[in-house]
């Protein structure tokens, strides 16, 4: 098992190295304005993003993204569990949620600009609202999928609503909730960039758009590289948190697979 795991990790590393080498070779000596050599991009990456650019653009972007994502997580899990556990809540909120989730998340940006104007509140609002729907749907599906036998047991032991929620529903819905959280994390990064391109004076998205407008293509590619690094790092951290929180689930899957 460990050998297979190390083999997969080695494959990931080898693929990444191969892509970087191919990029370096194919772009070497390029005189195109739009596709500068990788060496020029890396040079500008060090000059722009390692230092003031990190504090001026990356940290504000992460702060706004995590603020909106945290709001979406709290609201989405709460509403989703309520929908999954109660039929009248599902009938009350279901039509409105189905209507709003059908709208592309990026169309929330003009609405946010009208309501909040340019600035962090608009960006946090767009991220929070856009990211809440995948979490709501997955939390509701997880809560609704609890075995009826478990509900019978909670009634037999006279569990309170809080005990039923924390001792039965949340553990059973945990994998579905984390699936929604992971989907929303990628969406939060997208909405962060779009909102910054439209209504911000700093941030990764703002910097990338400004570089493109001024035809400083090396800076634009360096910004895209930073965005990819941020997304990859955030995803790795999330996977670590998920693995820690769902240790019982992964252990159960492993034991079932081995059996």
From TrEMBL:
<keyword id="KW-0813">Transport</keyword>
<dbReference type="GO" id="GO:0055085">
    <property type="term" value="P:transmembrane transport"/>
</dbReference>
<keyword id="KW-0812">Transmembrane</keyword>
<dbReference type="InterPro" id="IPR035906">
    <property type="entry name" value="MetI-like_sf"/>
</dbReference>
<feature type="transmembrane region" description="Helical">
    <location>
        <begin position="124"/>
        <end position="144"/>
    </location>
</feature>
<dbReference type="Pfam" id="PF00528">
    <property type="entry name" value="BPD_transp_1"/>
</dbReference>
<feature type="transmembrane region" description="Helical">
    <location>
        <begin position="187"/>
        <end position="209"/>
    </location>
</feature>
<dbReference type="InterPro" id="IPR000515">
    <property type="entry name" value="MetI-like"/>
</dbReference>
<dbReference type="GO" id="GO:0005886">
    <property type="term" value="C:plasma membrane"/>
</dbReference>
<feature type="transmembrane region" description="Helical">
    <location>
        <begin position="7"/>
        <end position="26"/>
    </location>
</feature>
<feature type="transmembrane region" description="Helical">
    <location>
        <begin position="66"/>
        <end position="87"/>
    </location>
</feature>
<protein>
    <submittedName>
        <fullName>ABC-type nitrate/sulfonate/bicarbonate transport system, permease component</fullName>
    </submittedName>
</protein>
<keyword id="KW-0472">Membrane</keyword>
<comment type="similarity">
    <text>Belongs to the binding-protein-dependent transport system permease family.</text>
</comment>
<feature type="transmembrane region" description="Helical">
    <location>
        <begin position="99"/>
        <end position="118"/>
    </location>
</feature>
<keyword id="KW-1003">Cell membrane</keyword>
<feature type="domain" description="ABC transmembrane type-1">
    <location>
        <begin position="58"/>
        <end position="238"/>
    </location>
</feature>
<keyword id="KW-1133">Transmembrane helix</keyword>
<feature type="transmembrane region" description="Helical">
    <location>
        <begin position="221"/>
        <end position="241"/>
    </location>
</feature>
């Amino acid at each position: 098992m460990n050998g297979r795991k190390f083999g997969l990790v080695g494959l990931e590393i080898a693929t990444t190295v191969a892509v970087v080498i191919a990029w370096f070779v194919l772009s070497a000596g390029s005189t195109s304005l739009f596709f500068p050599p990788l060496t020029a991009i890396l040079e500008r990456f060090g000059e722009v993003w390692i230092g003031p650019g990190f504090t001026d653009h990356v940290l504000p972007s992460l702060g706004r993204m995590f603020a909106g994502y945290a709001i979406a997580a709290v609201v989405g899990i709460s509403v989703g569990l309520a929908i999954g556990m109660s039929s009248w809540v599902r009938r009350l909120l279901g039509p409105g949620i189905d209507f709003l989730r059908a709208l592309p998340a990026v169309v929330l940006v003009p609405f946010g600009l009208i309501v909040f104007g340019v600035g962090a509140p608009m960006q946090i609002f767009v991220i929070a609202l856009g990211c809440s729907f995948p979490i709501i749907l997955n939390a509701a599906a997880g809560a609704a999928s609890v075995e009826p036998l478990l509900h019978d047991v909670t009634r037999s032991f006279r569990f309170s609503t809080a005990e039923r929620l924390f001792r039965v529903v949340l553990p059973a819905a945990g994998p579905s909730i984390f699936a929604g959280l992971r989907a929303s994390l990628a969406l939060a990064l997208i909405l962060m960039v779009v909102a910054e391109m439209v209504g911000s004076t700093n941030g990764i998205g703002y910097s990338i758009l400004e570089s493109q407008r001024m035809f400083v293509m090396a800076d634009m590619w360096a910004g895209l590289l930073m965005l990819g690094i941020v997304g990859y790092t955030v995803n790795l951290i999330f996977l670590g948190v998920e693995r820690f929180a769902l240790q019982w689930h992964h252990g159960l899957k492993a034991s079932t697979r081995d059996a």
